[in-house]
Design a protein that fits this description.
The complex is a heterodimer. Chain A is of the alpha/beta class. Chain A has ten helices and 15 strands. In chain A, helix 2 crosses helix 3 and helix 3 packs across helix 4. Classes of the chains: A alpha/beta, B mainly alpha.
């Protein structure tokens, strides 16, 4: 079975060192693939390359095994996309916006109600989209992406600017699409907590290079547990811990972060208290992707678990 | 239905609730109304029964000159900016160009719709010219209009003027799509129209300048008519080919 997305050596550079270099993406069919990276890492560039909006300097893209380039764009028939902000005609209603794309795609008319229902916009379908809230605009944009019954949905930061309720709705919708319709979802984000909740696979992009790709669980298992410590004399505590061979960093003026290695948290506590330092807070940090992100940013060697 | 026809019907839907169709009515109506008013208020020295055919010729010629000199190039400018602006405003290009239809259909749909809008404005002008004339029969009998307008001559002039204007239709389409900014398209169209005001009056250069080609249909005794019709259509095809080649290579950032 061909992966939903496969790129080899995908490269596109911009002046100033921006862009992406040598991307080898493998997005398995049926996965929810979180494409992570800080702003400016090249996520949007990658997505534009995956949709033939940009042309690569070198490398290739294949969607479900079909090559995609300027001369051969048929693979796009299997893709629905939302690139950055929704592209809507504000003077038209939600339904008319869908009708514009429906005419271009030549799909049957009942698809419009089907996708409106899917994203929960049936009731507001006949209002002009300029009156829509941001959350409604995002949902209509996803309805537009779903119109052609795609096997792959490519979404560029779909939660951007949504309120917490909107984010929850979006998450539920994406899960449904993957579970019920069997759509592969490729979703980019700089909000790690966002991906953490829904993704089965992740790719981490840093400064234009893919630094990790694999299952989310693989990624989690690589996170070293960390201890957060607050005490009355953080400077001295930091020196003490460092002197005893711990990897220690300051998160802010009051909080130290220790990467747990050989000693347990109880031993570290005893060490500090024994030296007359009053420890007010000592807790393991929840193994979030944030922490992992930090690891990947600090550790230079490229790792690819895929 | 071919992808091109589907793109065209999508384009028509986008025009709903815009001023595009209204402008095809307002622009010619303004020109005709303006000229009818001018004649109504002017003092005409009574002549012994002017020839109605001559009066109709004079009447239609004056309207066509005002139309082709000023209103038509400005109409093309505004309509092209409006059509392209629909896609620039929310960067709809990134949505359209990620669809599995040939990229060219979007560009050609814009060009065809603009051509259609200009054609519609010509039809409205053709219908309003006799109406304006008959108003003058009532308001200003001394002007000498009488009976039916000379339809064959009227149709021929309008058709030639329309063909000669196609080069600026294709140029403005390219410019308006190429640059995101509404200002660029409008600035080019306005400046070119003003320049045309001078160049268009030149015996030697008038028929070479795209923005004064439509007007050259009516210059002199129509000696430039074949040239500007030919140049309008052929030039339009060349510009369309170039614009399309540029569009197909374009990247959406």
């Amino acid at each position: 079975m061909h992966p939903a997305i496969r790129t080899r050596g995908l490269t596109r550079q911009f002046p100033g060192g921006f862009g992406v270099r040598g991307l080898d993406l493998n997005v398995p069919e049926g996965s929810i693939y979180g494409f992570l990276g800080p702003n400016g890492a090249g996520k949007s560039t990658t997505i534009r390359l995956l949709l033939d909006l940009l042309r690569p300097d070198s490398g290739e893209v294949a969607l479900f095994g079909q090559p995609l380039h300027r001369g051969s764009r048929q693979a796009l028939a299997m893709v629905g996309a939302l690139v950055e902000s929704p592209s809507l005609y504000g003077h038209l209603t939600g339904r008319q916006n869908l009708e514009v794309t429906r005419r271009l795609l030549d799909v049957p008319r009942p698809r419009i109600n089907a996708v409106l229902q899917r994203v929960g916009l049936l009731d507001s379908a006949d209002r002009r989209t300029r009156e829509y809230s941001l959350g409604m605009r995002q949902r209509l944009a996803i309805a537009l992406a779903l119109l052609g019954q795609p096997r792959l949905l490519i979404l560029d930061e779909p939660s951007n600017g949504l309120d917490p309720g909107g984010i929850l709705d979006m998450r539920r919708l994406l899960r449904q699409l993957a579970a019920e319709d069997g759509i592969t979802v490729f979703i980019s984000s700089h909000l790690l907590s966002e991906i953490d909740q829904i993704a089965s696979h992740v790719g981490v992009l840093l400064a234009g290079e893919l630094r990790f790709e694999g299952e989310l669980d693989q990624l989690r298992s690589r996170v070293k547990p960390r201890l957060l410590i607050r005490c009355d004399d953080p400077l001295r505590a930091r020196d003490l811990l460092a002197a005893s061979g711990e990897i220690v960093a300051s998160r802010d003026a009051d909080t130290l972060v220790v990467t747990l290695a050989e000693k347990s948290e109880a031993q570290l506590n005893r060490l500090l208290v024994g030296q007359g330092i009053e420890v007010s807070h000592l807790a393991r940090e929840v193994a979030s992707l944030e922490a992992l992100f930090f690891d990947l940013t600090v550790d230079v060697p490229m790792e690819n678990a895929a | 239905m071919s992808a091109q026809l589907r793109a065209l019907s999508a384009e028509m839907l986008k025009l709903r609730g815009t001023l595009a169709l209204w402008m095809c009515l307002i622009a010619p109506a303004t020109v005709v109304a303006l000229y009818v008013l001018q004649v109504s208020f002017s003092k005409i020295v009574p002549r012994p029964a002017p020839d109605p055919a001559e009066s109709w010729f004079f009447f239609t010629q004056s309207i066509f000159v005002l139309w082709s000199f000023l209103m038509l190039p400005l109409l093309v400018t505004l309509q092209s900016a409006l059509l392209a602006g629909l896609e620039h405003s929310d960067n709809q290009w990134k949505h359209l160009l990620a669809l599995p239809v040939p990229r060219r259909v979007h560009y050609l749909a814009k060009l065809l719709v603009l051509t259609g809008l200009v054609l519609a404005a010509f039809v409205v002008l053709l219908l309003l010219i006799p109406v304006g004339g008959w108003l003058l029969v009532l308001l200003k009998p001394a002007f000498g209009l009488h009976g039916m307008p000379p339809w064959p001559a009227l149709l021929k002039s309008a058709a030639a003027c329309f063909a000669a204007s196609w080069l600026i239709v294709t140029l403005q389409t390219w410019i308006a799509i190429r640059w995101r900014s509404f200002t660029v398209a409008v600035a080019v169209g306005m400046s070119a129209t003003v320049i045309g005001f001078l160049v268009g009056q030149s015996e030697r250069f008038g028929h070479w300048y795209p923005w004064s080609m439509p007007m050259q249909v009516f210059a002199g005794h129509g000696e430039h008519l074949p040239f500007v019709v030919f140049a309008g259509v052929l030039g339009g095809l060349v510009v369309t080919a170039l614009g399309l080649a540029d569009y197909l290579r374009r990247e959406i950032g």
